[in-house]
Amino acid sequence: MNHLLRESAPISDVGWKMLDEEARERLTPALAARKLVDFSGPHGWEHSATKLGRVEQLDGAPEAGVTGLRRRVLALIELRVDFELARSELRDGDRGADDVNLGPLDHAAHKIAVAENIAVFHGWQNAITGIAEATPQKTGKLGATAEKYPSAVARAVEQLLSSGIEGPYGLALGREQYRRVVETAEHGGYPLLDHLRKILEGPIVWTPGVEGAVVLSMRGGDFVFESGQDLSIGYLSHDADVVSLYLEESFSFRVATAEAAVALAP
After folding, report:
1. Torsions phi, psi of 162, nearest 5?
2. What is the DSSP letter of 64?
């Protein structure tokens, strides 16, 4: 038995398989940050810190003539979202129903994915420094309409090239900005999405939680997401009617090359 306590839940093996598959389907589209930064792990629930390769001086050595250094590490954070499922729906799933109401799980999966995206791109106070807040590059502006996006993205790419940051480049687009791009065709019917891809030579990713957009290099080594425990469903408690569960993960994120990204305001 591990800390998720799944063996204690009144859920069959078939039920757990159904829940894991549902969570995976809901999480994959929304976990946008992982598609644009380096991913390391998962290293397990016991993994607690990321080594930084740096030290800090210690004062007051216990013996004269002795000096001390302390190695610096980046502690992992834990994200968790609780939810409840009706036991009657889980029993119907065991009977083979293909329309089981897993809405609370779907909602929890989306919330934790958005929280992860926000942490990576905009930071988490006293825990994570996000890409947009770390970059020293001048913030650009997308423009009022989607037709202006190519110019803004091209300027961002030129800004990165001028800083010696090679591509290919990726584009994290906030929910509203992505919708505008998908809906818009430029003069002559050429899809805006294709135009942006040619500028970037890399992916364009729907990124719920991002404000505006972020252009970043995907050459590798600039932004690192280190997973301890990857997203997993755990068990809390149950009564005659519902099972209380949660989605949980642990991770750290660090910006190795702050100038390798340009934020674009909405």
Report:
1. -65, -25
2. T
pTM of the model: 0.92
Residue-wise pLDDT tens digits, 153-181: 999 999 999 999 999 999 999 999 999 99
> Residue 143: which residues within 8 A CB-CB, separation 6 or more?
149, 151, 152
Between CA 123 and CA 132 the distance in angstroms is 8
**Mean pLDDT confidence for 74-103:** 96
Element (H, E) at 143: none
For 140-258, strand residue ranges (E) read 140-141, 169-173, 204-206, 213-217, 223-227, 232-238, 242-255
Closest by CA position to 107, among listed 30, 161, 160, 175:
30
Closest CA relative to residue 244, chosen from 98, 81, 110, 94: 81
Nearest to 204 by CA among 180, 238, 222: 180
214-235 pLDDT tens trace:
999 999 999 999 999 999 999 9
- Count of positions (residues) in the chain: 266
- Residue 101's contacts (CB-CB under 8 Å, 6 or more residues apart) are 86, 89
- Give the phi and the psi of residue 53 in degrees, each rounded to 5: 70, 20
- Given a contact cutoff of 8 angstroms between Cβ atoms, the answer to whether 105 and 231 are in contact is no
